[in-house]
Amino acid sequence: MEFPHPTWLDRAIGYQIYPQSFQDRNGDGIGDLLGILSRVDYLVDLGVDLIWLSPIYDSPFLDAGYDVRDFKKVAPRYGSMEDLDRLIEALHAREIRLMLDLVPGHTSIDHPWFLESSKNEPNPYTNRYVWTHSMYEVPTGTGEGFLQGYGEREGAVAINFFWSQPKLNYGVLQPDPTKSWELPFDHPDVRAVWEEMFDIIRFWLDRGVDGFRIDSAKSICPDRPPLGEGRFYRELRGIFDREYPEAALLTEWGWPSDALKTGIHADFLLHNNLAFNELFSLPGWENGVPAPIFSDQGGDVARFYQHYLPHHEDRHGGLICLMTGNHDYMRCGTNRSISQLKGLFTFLLTMPALPMIYYGDEVGMPNVMGLKSKEGGFRRTGCRTPMQWDDKDGFSETPRTDWYLPPHEVPGERTVAAQVGHDDSLRTLVQKLIHLRKSHPALDPEAPWIPLMEEGPTLFYQRGEGEKALVIVIHPCQTERIIEWPLALSRKKPDLQLSQGVSFRKSGSELHLAPESFAIFI
Length: 522
Ligand code: NOJ
Hints:
The chain is an alpha/beta fold. It contains 14 helices and 18 strands. It has three domains: 7-105 and 189-441, TIM Barrel (Alpha-Beta Barrel); 106-169, Oligo-1,6-glucosidase, Domain 2 (Oligo-1,6-glucosidase, domain 2); 448-521, Sandwich (Immunoglobulin-like). The strands form four sheets. It has an eight-stranded parallel barrel. The model has no long low-confidence stretch (mean pLDDT 96). The site of 1-deoxynojirimycin (NOJ) has 9 residues, from loops.
């Protein structure tokens, strides 16, 4: 089955803002909504037009806001509902859309629903979460985590991630009689969870947001075949089609061919997927591979295609979202040269996929190493540091010692101030690539994508067809290479604004690739 998506999504350029780290306005050292508002011109100048804002809801912040205490309230540290309204208005006035982060699978342990649910006396919230019938009854070998010994209720509660994130009960297609906590989809208490979530979704869409990034999206689809048919998402898609046809859903599922068949508009390629790892993930990083394509020694595009193509070919009308990174992952700028990052962005912005830039990656921000865990960040903490606007107090006027996280001590050229207006900076290249992406027909996600070389360290592909086709060559590793240049492409010339380190030899029949080279041929 095919699920069309709103046309704006085809050309959208995503940008993830981690609210606590982007821009502080009220001087408490933590980023906020009015801070983001003050940087709308920056976003316009960069050219992005779809913001994904990590959670801004009321929370005890045991998982940096992914532990929601009130789904309909803005956390005071980020501002007020009126601030959000102002931000939405300002973004829309500049044709930028806003996606909030929806965390449907769990709540904070402090959520009023959970406080009720953990009471011994039966009440309307008794089945709102996944509880076993005895504190001692904890399944083993299923991969599910359970919290034992919380509150007065006789039972253990399933958790979605940290101990402080109890799992909401979305039901299953066919309850397993040996698992007392499994309820069928049509159980009234399961329906109540679905309806609450639909209500929350409508609440924000009615306020003007343009969609959601859905956290841990797969967690609410039972993990047994047939995946509960993604029934929650199918129903949600129906609501979107009928009531909000211009809004979109982007899931943190990480397996596009499964996610998109439920009617979701776009799904991330994540580090649980080898296609992502074969591109970006160095050894020592989560699921790192010995030699990804974007590494000094170079990878093999065959391994990337092997894992990517099955998803590309099974999109059901949806989009794969390719990201530079996110708040859970080592920043792509860590241990990578600016030249290699230029190739990485050339790839990201010329693929038939929805690009998503993690704030600061456009200037090559690296992880800050050796930080103590903040708000459940643990090893993720180093990728959540303040936006490197400059090497001074661009993020916040308050002394650095009071910032949400310490900034990089020696950011060098990896700041906005050092790169804006400089012809050869990474940010300037990103800006040019975004412009090309938005204006060139060959870069429409529906335009053909034709890999021209299916093995080795070099990404070499064509976008579009005929006169207007673009040819892209990206050679991220440290060794030189010569590739044969197809006769059929003899009229193509590198766009000098969007190229580095490539030169034709032997009357144009060979292309020499310097280390860390890239080019777009027009
Ligand atoms: C994925 C989010 O990206 C991550 O930051 C969070 O900790 C987990 N989901 C749990 O919500």
